[in-house]
Amino acid sequence: MRAAVLRGGTVEARIVDDPVPGPGQLLVRSLACGICASDLHFMDHPEAGADDDSGMSTYDQDVDIVMGHEYCAEVVGYGPGTERRIPVGTRVSSLPVLNTPAGRRIIGQNPESPGGFGELFLLTEAITRVVVSDLPSEIVCVADAISVGWSTASRAQLAVREAPLVIGCGAIALSAIGRLKSLGVGPIVAADLVASRRATALAMGADVVVDPGEESPYEAWRNAAGPQASCVVFECVGVPGVLDSIIRGCERGTRIFSVGGPPEGDHLHTLTAKRKGLNIQFGGGPSMDHWDEAFGAVCSGSLDVGPMLGHTVGLGGVPAALDAARGADGPPRIIVVPGS
């Protein structure tokens, strides 16, 4: 098959062996796959994987890896021991985890679990979901990105007198904004240095947007939320120093949900956090229930992800698209269509 292959820190499109489905696995054809910031983190910071002793995410620079974990695909075959409950030709997606005899692997972040930047890849049948929608695959594939912010916003369980402040307006932040809006939470204040991303945040449901280079997000939040509100901050940037700046800039008693997670680590003024009585919750992936909810919202069209989408590329365009995705003013999602 053809695939955009990561090896030795670079990506190129070439021919590799077709994956072979094992027990409980489906062989699927990639129809569309989003480029995620975690793809960039994975390839640009191989040292970050050294701290992961689970084996789920492994970057060996001397081995081919096919990235891509936000996908819509089509079933083309079955491994041994499968129920074959999903007919060949059915569009599907799943939480990007592949069950293998050696353990669980993140799809697109391990040599054993190739992802959607190739023509073919493998899914775990038990967690594969059928696409019940007529929406294009380029829209459906965004559901996994939506699930991360969706889960974070759901887990935050904002109370009546709490109001959110979203720092950063990339894909995960936009999905959190969309979920907060669907929950009736507000006013939603969002901050980003890039005008185009602020505009997208408004399209996804933010009530107020602010350029933190010109105005304090915390003052803008207080003006919008009113004197009685308590702040819940969603940190969705993933750049060193941002979480610490929130710790130093936010009000006392703020709850912070950090989804960014810079791979190179960060330094935090923990004494300041202690003095302010801050509650900081770090990341974690979406639960299966939250993934299903986000997937259903995208497929039904109840959550319009159209404002998040940029251009599409074929496999030969993946290297340039990865570079474009690194830019702060790039679209929240560039979509890879292997068959184009």
From TrEMBL:
Keywords from the UniProt entry: Oxidoreductase
Leader sequence residues: none
Gene3D superfamilies xrefs: Medium-chain alcohol dehydrogenases, catalytic domain, NAD(P)-binding Rossmann-like Domain
Domain of life: Bacteria
The Alcohol dehydrogenase-like C-terminal domain, residue ranges: 172-280
Chain segments annotated as coiled-coil in the UniProt record: none
Residue ranges occupied by any Alcohol dehydrogenase-like N-terminal domain in the UniProt entry: 22-125
UniProt cross-references to InterPro entries, sorted A to Z: ADH-like_C (IPR013149), ADH-like_N (IPR013154), GroES-like_sf (IPR011032), NAD(P)-bd_dom_sf (IPR036291)
Pfam family, one: ADH_N
Listed name of the protein: Zinc-binding dehydrogenase
Source species of the chain: Streptomyces hokutonensis
